[in-house]
Amino acid sequence: MQTANAILQYPDSEEPEHCGWNIQTRTSEPIFRALAGMPDRASLFAQAMIWHAQEPGFSPRYLAEVFPWESTSTLLPPVREISAIGDPDDTCDPTTPHSKPFTIVDVGGGLGHISRALLAHYLSLSEADRHGHGTQESCLGQCEHETDPRENLAVRRRHRPVQCIVQDAAQVVSQALSTAQAQTASNANDMVESRIEFQAHDFFHEQPVKGADVYFLRLVLHDWSDKYALQILRALIPALESGAKVVVNDRVVPGRHEVHYLVERETRDHDMYMLAFQNARERALEDWTALFGAADARFVLSAAHRPAGLWELFMIFSSPHQQEIEIGATQSNAIPRELHLNIKHTSHYTSTPPSDPIRHSPKDQTC
Question: Which ranges are annotated Basic and acidic residues under compositional bias (predicted)?
Fold first, then answer.
């Protein structure tokens, strides 16, 4: 590849087309725009993302089974909020109308394999924990006969139905709809398919889904330099309402000796891939907080989770529209002064840089 030549030719550029891939292929279009004009290759890329997710270190089951969606102490709406329908006395009445669905917008979600995994796990919990209440989602809160709240997280969560809106480029959505129709016709995962909506959307433009509970970005922002990652984040802000969360599932560059050297090497290899193909980079945890702070200084990192065995980190940023968040509101490009961290399954990620980090911008790295 021509990565070194690209660095010499465009030393300070953040444009995605100023990279080794473009010099090698003699094209002026960024790789994703070029793929948009090559449906066959775009389809292969989408399928490759599904294959990539099957690797143990990147499996979507961590998102569905390990990520603490129902936690009341760190992230997304607490169980009582997810379950709320107005009158707490009606919480176990199967005839009570559901409140607005708990909505997850899967931004850049490809063919929807992550959303399908999440919904399938959610529905399996609903089926296993229904305790004889007429429907899968009929028990709405803490029932009188249930004394251990830990055994009833799924039941309490069930009252508010979950839906996922998967957004991606038009040609990817077209392929995803064909796949969904085929699965529905064969009665495969019919309950899952009924809860997924596909929507063509350019994530550089204003988010059209307003008031969702979670805006989820998995392996999206690492494809873009800070200039364009900021555009993606700022496009979300008009859609955020109080209590909304932005959940990022992406790679985090560790400091020296923070993880096994093979994991560190793999992450740094990907840092070079991002540079070569998109003039982008992987980010350390402090880079992520700085990025969100530059997008809107009221964003707060509520939690960071790195499940054992996973090569990616989950980061949860509280909505800048929550009433209690007033951090640097007058300094739109300031890094938040307050950083809330609740880090599980790793003892080394901190809110301050490591004492001896190996962190370089892409322009500082050598092959």
Answer: 357-367
Q: Is residue 51 part of a domain?
A: yes
Rg (Cα) of the chain, in Å, rounded?
21
Q: Which helix (H) or strand (E) holds 101?
A: none
We report the CATH number of the domain holding residue 220 as 3.40.50.150
Give this prediction's pTM: 0.72
Cβ contact 275:23 at 8 Å: no
String of b and e for 23-41 (b: at least 16 CB within 10 Å)? beeeeeebbbebbbeeeee
> Using CA atoms in the order 321, 322, 326, 328, what is the torsion angle rounded to 10 degrees?
-40
Which structural domain range is residue 314 located in?
39-364
In tens, the pLDDT along 290-345 reads 999 999 988 988 888 776 655 567 788 886 654 333 222 222 333 222 323 332 22
Q: Is residue 110 part of a domain?
A: yes
User: From CA 153, how far away is CA 83, in angstroms rounded?
Assistant: 10
The residue behind tokens 């929807």 is 112
Tokens of 193: 């398919």
Report yes or no: 342 and 274 within 8 Å, Cβ to Cβ.
Answer: no
Answer yes or no: is 140 within a domain. yes
The Cα 315–Cα 304 span in angstroms is: 5
